[in-house]
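// run 5 | inverse folding | seed 20
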């Protein structure tokens, strides 16, 4: 597959979601859009737009001519497909015609499975070579097969060396996404038909059902007053539900448990205690030697990036550092589930963004006991950045009115059109008028 004697290559860091997002954006802007107008929609960031545009053109979804970008007939066919999973099949058909995917599939049809080196050697026989910076052909082909072939459900990978044709019944080690977690049968934490009232009057929320699965980050959004923070406290059993029940690993939870930790929106550190003593607080009722308590607290502070500040008091720390101490304290209890009640709301945006990255890393860090996390937030960009699934609460009494899966590759960029599509979808979900329930 050549253009002007040079082999085509999928740009690095671009995936199927970005490409679909670009086509959706073009549909909204008009059948033919000037490159300058399209660039302005990407914050005038040429480095973000060009790889996505090149990928869409390579797949035959858009065409560029004389400074204008248009959706092709094939691109319109993609837009006519109503659901995301069927759009993936359209992209799958497009990829199957391109190298190195067509060569890999041909070898797989003969042998059942194929190693990366075999694909590279077959391409070399055809005279197809890639040069992308300092990367070898093997590195480029590997990235293309994994970054494109797997998300498009064209190929599967055993996590070691072998590629196979995608089987709808299996998910490989490098496909650990919402698709994988949604297929698990046992929830980590589950709220079943939860309702809560402060008095005998109308409930705050009613009939709420939600759950998290292994390595899943779930978010809850909703207008002010819908009981999101109260729901977290019910899940932690800090307050009992009026009706319904909470399960952890399939077992009913009837009282607060160290396996469920809650981080408050107010930065809860004790001013008369050092950072180390704040973290050690949750370990005081454990049957642990003093040295082990100190070692555990120091490890948690190191995990949140606070090594070397163990002896400092909250008044000597920034807001971001104090919130890190609170998170370290929550982790020291060795929880399976981390509940986050707007933990970044009182921080400046730069600090908040840094701690968001830390929190996501901690949820999936093998050095912690965490299996999943639930975040309450009013910041929809924050929610799309972090979450695998988003529960939208609305109504009076409130309930879960919609669940949105955020099917985007990580790391996520707020400049990605698909990212902004999800933000728009959540805004629309929040603005839906819900009829009051009896």
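// decoded
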């Amino acid at each position: 597959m050549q253009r002007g004697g040079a082999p085509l290559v999928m740009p690095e860091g671009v995936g199927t979601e970005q490409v679909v997002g670009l086509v959706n954006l073009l549909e909204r802007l008009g059948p033919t859009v000037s490159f300058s107008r399209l660039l302005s929609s990407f914050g005038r960031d040429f480095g973000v737009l060009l790889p996505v545009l090149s990928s869409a053109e390579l797949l035959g979804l858009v065409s560029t001519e004389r400074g204008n970008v248009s959706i092709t007939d094939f691109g319109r066919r993609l837009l006519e497909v109503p659901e995301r999973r069927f759009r993936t099949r359209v992209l799958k058909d497009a990829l199957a015609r391109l190298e190195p995917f067509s060569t890999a599939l041909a070898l797989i049809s003969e042998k059942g499975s194929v190693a990366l080196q075999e694909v590279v050697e077959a391409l070399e026989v055809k005279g197809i070579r890639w040069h992308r910076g300092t990367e070898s052909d093997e590195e480029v082909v590997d990235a293309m097969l994994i970054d494109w072939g797997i998300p498009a459900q064209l190929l599967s990978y055993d996590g070691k060396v072998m590629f196979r044709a995608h089987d709808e019944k299996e998910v490989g080690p490098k496909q650990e996404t919402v698709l994988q977690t949604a297929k698990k049968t046992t929830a980590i934490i589950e709220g079943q038909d939860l309702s809560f009232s402060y008095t005998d009057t109308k409930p705050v929320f009613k009939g709420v059902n939600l759950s998290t699965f292994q390595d899943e980050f779930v978010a809850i959004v909703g207008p002010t007053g819908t009981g999101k923070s109260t729901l977290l406290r019910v899940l932690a059993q800090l307050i009992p539900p009026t009706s319904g029940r909470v399960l952890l690993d399939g077992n009913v939870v009837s009282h607060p448990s160290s396996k469920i930790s809650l981080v408050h929106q107010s930065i809860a550190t004790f001013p008369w205690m050092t950072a180390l003593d704040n973290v050690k607080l949750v370990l005081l009722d454990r049957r642990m030697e003093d040295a082990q308590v100190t070692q555990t607290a120091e490890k948690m502070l190191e995990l949140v990036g606070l090594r070397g500040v163990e002896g400092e008091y909250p008044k000597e720390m920034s807001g971001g550092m104090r919130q890190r101490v609170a998170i370290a304290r929550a982790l020291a209890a060795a929880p399976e589930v981390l509940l986050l009640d707007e933990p970044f709301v009182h921080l400046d945006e730069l600090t908040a963004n840094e701690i968001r990255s830390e929190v996501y890393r901690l949820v999936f860090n093998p050095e912690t006991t965490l299996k999943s996390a639930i975040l309450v937030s009013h910041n929809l960009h924050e929610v799309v950045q972090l979450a695998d699934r988003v529960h939208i609460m609305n109504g009076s009494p409130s309930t879960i009115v919609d669940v949105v899966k955020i099917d985007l590759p990580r790391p996520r960029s707020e400049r990605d059109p698909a990212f902004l599509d999800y933000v728009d979808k959540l805004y629309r979900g929040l603005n839906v008028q819900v009829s009051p329930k009896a």
